[in-house]
């Protein structure tokens, strides 16, 4: 069993983070560059076994204008003014099949599930390649891909994709004026936090056990994957 700090300490845990001087400028620039792409998201109706909601195969422009896939489930009996839930997937998974994502639409919320570029080989399939991968040496996995340069790092691309997923939800015609809530577990929880900050104007964020919340501490208390990818990279390089 792996135990961290006592619950009372975890509730007030707020580590000091060595934030680079150009942190805000960097992310504002990355997001502005992505939003400069004029491509409108597409929402193509999909027929399938889901009967309580209309299903759309979504494509939107993510980092560097790369096409990112998503599912959108729009319940036939949506709660009036219900928030649009934008959900992100855990490490190694992709958007899978629409039938994998029924909870929020069954509760009356329009629900957009972002595919995860380059992932999908772990537990749910995916349909989005990582077109921005330079092929630089890395450990197996995703944490160290492009890690030597912030603009080339895998999670720079993925965080921008997440913010653009929120933009896509807001550009969905039936979503106009609805509040947006970000959600996800593990890697998806980390993306929910990142998207909420980068996209702005979010009604709420619902991260569950968020991944990458404090990688330095994670490396200090566990050698389990996927954090071990970072240690292995440093060991080899």
Top keywords for this entry?
237 residues, alpha/beta, Rossmann fold, 29% helix
Descriptive overview:
- This protein has seven helices and seven strands, in the order ααββββαβαβαβαα.
- With 237 residues, the protein is an alpha/beta fold.
- The chain has a single domain (21-236), classed as Rossmann fold (3-Layer(aba) Sandwich), CATH 3.40.50.1820.
- It has a seven-stranded mixed beta sheet.
- Helix 4 (154-171) packs across helix 5.
- The longest helix is centred in the C-terminal third of the chain and has 18 residues, at 154-171.
- It is globular and about 50 Å long.
Q: Residue-averaged pLDDT, rounded?
A: 94
- Distance from N terminus to C terminus (CA atoms, Å) equals 31 Å
Low-confidence stretches: none
CATH class: Alpha Beta
User: Which structural class matches the secondary elements?
Assistant: alpha/beta
- Known CATH architecture: 3-Layer(aba) Sandwich
Determine the CATH topology.
Rossmann fold
Give me the Rg, rounded: 18 Å
Number of helices: 7
Give the CATH superfamily: Alpha/Beta hydrolase fold, catalytic domain
**Widest beta sheet: strand line-up:** 1-2-3-5-4-6-7
What is the N-to-C succession of helices and strands?
Answer: HHEEEEHEHEHEHH
Largest sheet: 7 strands, mixed
Number of domains: 1
Q: How many strands in all?
A: 7
Shape: globular
């Amino acid at each position: 069993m792996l135990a961290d700090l006592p619950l009372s300490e975890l509730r007030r845990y707020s580590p000091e983070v060595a934030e680079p001087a150009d942190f805000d400028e960097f992310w504002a620039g990355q997001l502005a560059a992505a939003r400069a792409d004029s491509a409108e998201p597409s929402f193509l109706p999909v027929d399938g076994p889901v009967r309580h909601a209309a299903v759309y195969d979504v494509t939107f422009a993510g980092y560097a204008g790369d096409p990112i896939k998503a599912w959108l489930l729009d319940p036939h009996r949506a709660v009036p003014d219900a928030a649009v839930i934008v959900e992100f997937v855990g490490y190694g998974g992709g958007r899978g099949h629409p039938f994998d994502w029924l909870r929020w639409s069954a509760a009356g919320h329009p629900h957009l599930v972002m595919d995860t570029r380059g992932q999908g080989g772990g537990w749910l399939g995916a349909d989005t390649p990582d077109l921005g991968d330079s092929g630089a040496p890395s450990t197996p996995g995703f944490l160290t891909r492009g890690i030597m340069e912030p603009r080339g790092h895998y999670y720079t691309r993925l965080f921008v994709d997440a913010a653009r997923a929120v933009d896509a939800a807001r550009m969905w015609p039936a979503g106009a004026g609805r509040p947006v809530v970000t959600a996800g577990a593990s890697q998806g929880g980390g993306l929910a936090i990142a998207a909420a900050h980068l996209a702005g104007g979010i009604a709420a964020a619902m991260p569950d056990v968020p991944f990458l919340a404090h990688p330095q501490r994670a490396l200090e208390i566990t050698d389990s994957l996927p954090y071990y990818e970072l240690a292995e990279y440093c060991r080899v390089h």
